[in-house]
Amino acid sequence: MNPGSVAVVVTEEIGVPSWDLYELSIPCTVFGKPQPDLADPWYDLRLCSTGKGRQDSSPADTGLSLRTRYGLDDLVGADTVIVPSVPDPCVDEGRPLPAALITALRRAHDAGARMVSLCTGAFALAEAGLLDGRRATAHWMHTAQLAERYPKVQVDDSVLYVDDGDVLTSAGLTAGLDLCLHLVRRDLGARVANQLARRMVVPAHRRGGQAQFIDLSVPATDDKNLGPVLDWACAHLDQPLTVEDLAQRAAMSPRTFHRRLQAATGTTPLQWLLSQRLGRAQNLLESTDLSIEKIGELSGLGTANNLRHHFLKQIGVSPSHYRRTFPRAVPDSSLPPLGNRARGGEDRRRIGRGASDAPVAPEADG
After folding, report:
1. Where is this region: Disordered (predicted)?
2. 57 partner at 20 to 30 Å CA-CA among 38, 119, 133, 268?
C-alpha cells in the first residue's frame, strides 16, 4: 500500500523559533526516513515554505530561517498536509498568519488532502475555517485562546489528539508524535506503527490524555473578597466543604458567591473544588509515598475508590498510573498545610465524598 505524500508547512517568512523545531522534526522523523522493511514504498515527504527565508530579528531572537525545495503551491495535491506549529506572536499577540498560507490550506483541503495540525498548528487550521463545527485540540496552555478566538471550534483540552476523519489535531510537543504514529497506524496498520514506535523508543499508544499534564493550581483572581477564601479552602481540602461554607466565609450569599467565583475563574464552585482536590491528589502522588487511601482522605476525595473514579473521569488515568508517570523526586514543601480532617455525614454538595457518584469497583493496579 502506498501511503502517499506528506507536505509539512514551514512558516519561514515569520521565522522558526528554535523551540518549535521539535514539532517540525516529528513529522520529518516519522514520515521522512524510509522504512523499507516495514513498508515499501514509504511516505513521500515535502517541506513546504511560506516565504523566502527572511525574517525580522533582534539580538534576543533565537529563531532561524530554513530553506526548502517546496513552496505553498506544493500543499495542493499532497495526500496529507501537516502544520507543526505557528509562531508564538500569532498565538499570543494575534499576529496574522500569511494570507497565502491560509489560502493554500483551504485549497489543499478542497482538493481532498487530509489536514493535520500539531500543537499550535491548530490556529492555522482554525483560521482557514477547517475546524468550524469540529472537535479539535491543541497544547493545553493554548486551548483557552483557541476557543476564545475561534468560537465555532469545539475545543477539547483533555486529549492527546483528535481524529475527525479528514482533519486531525494534536496537543503539544510529544502528543504530536502520538498523532503521527496514529496516522501510520491508519495508513499501514498496527504492526508497522508498533515496530516504528519501538525503533523510536516510544510507546505505540499512550494511556490517558493531556488532562494528566494540565496544571490545576489555583487561578489568580483580582477579587479581594474571593482570594482569601480560596486560599483558605485550599488549606482545608481534607475537610467537608460546601458552597454555603465558602459563601459564608466570603460574607456573600451562595448565589452571589457562585456568580463571583464563576466570573473570576470561569468555573462553578463545585467544579473549582473538585479541581483543587484533584490538584492536591496529584501533588501528593508526585511528592509522597502515601497510600491511595490516605491521599484520598488528605485531598478530600474520600475513599480510594472515589479517588480512582474522579482520576479516571477527569485525568484519564488511574492514580497508580499517574504516580508511575510522574515518579517522586523531591518532596513538595510548597504545599499549604492541611487542617484536621473534619467528621461529617455524606452531603451531595460536598465534593469527592462519594455522594454525587455511584460506587466504583477497585482497579487492579491501585
Report:
1. 326-366
2. 119
